[in-house]
Amino acid sequence: MTGPPAAASPTGGAAASRPRPADEEGQPDPEEKGPLRRCVATRESLPKERMIRFVLGPGRELVPDLSERLPGRGMWLSARRDVLEAAVKRGAFARASRGQVHPPPDLSMRIEAGLRLRVRDLVGFARRAGQAVCGFQQAREWLQAERAGVVVQASDGSANERARLVGARGVPVVAALTAAELGGIFGRDHAVHVAVAKGRLAQEIAREAARLGGFTSAVESLRG
After folding, report:
1. Which of 76, 116, 133, 205 has a 20 to 30 Å separation from 150 between CA atoms?
2. Residue 183 DSSP one-character state
3. What is the C-alpha to C-alpha distance for residues 9 and 104, in angstroms, rounded to an integer?
4. Residue 188 sits in the same domain as residue 156
5. Domain that residue 189 falls in
6. 44/39 Cα distance (integer angstroms)
7. Where would I find the YlxR domain in this sequence (predicted)?
8. Which residue in 168, 169, 174 sits closest to 212, CA to CA?
């Protein structure tokens, strides 16, 4: 005696109802929908803002897609250097792509440099939009007026002076760029303190710096 026929799929057959391929833990890979992505190394689901997307190039080389715009099937990884190193060593990208993968030997350095460049570009956008000021006094005025959404300080500046500016205010503090890099954005030889107005650009700076923080000590948050 045979059982009931399989339910027809929207495409007219039972094939569409087959389960997706399982990962190494026997669980189906989740669809890349919604705000969460699964890390190919830790299998932990995290917000995209805390992850880095990778795609494969024409020769199956591993390419970090920091802007999350490159074509191809994305593979997501927690934005941490130790997780990246473990993923490469254990072949997590090869398993996720079901084939050979060629990660460049300087992959972590490329990611760090790319994220630092994204922070610099975003601060530049804020300056050109009139949403950023530099200098201790101007930055302090924006903080006192609760106008600042993020403070960007020179990574090679005085730690005591940086702490004296922000105090105990609950404002994200990004220390990803040197004084010379910050100064170049504002047409100066150097700058130590930059305040960015609340809004999308400040949020993007904090996000990129947080991802960079997984590869360097780039972000600290002082809470009141």
Report:
1. 76
2. H
3. 43
4. yes
5. 109-222
6. 5
7. 37-107
8. 174
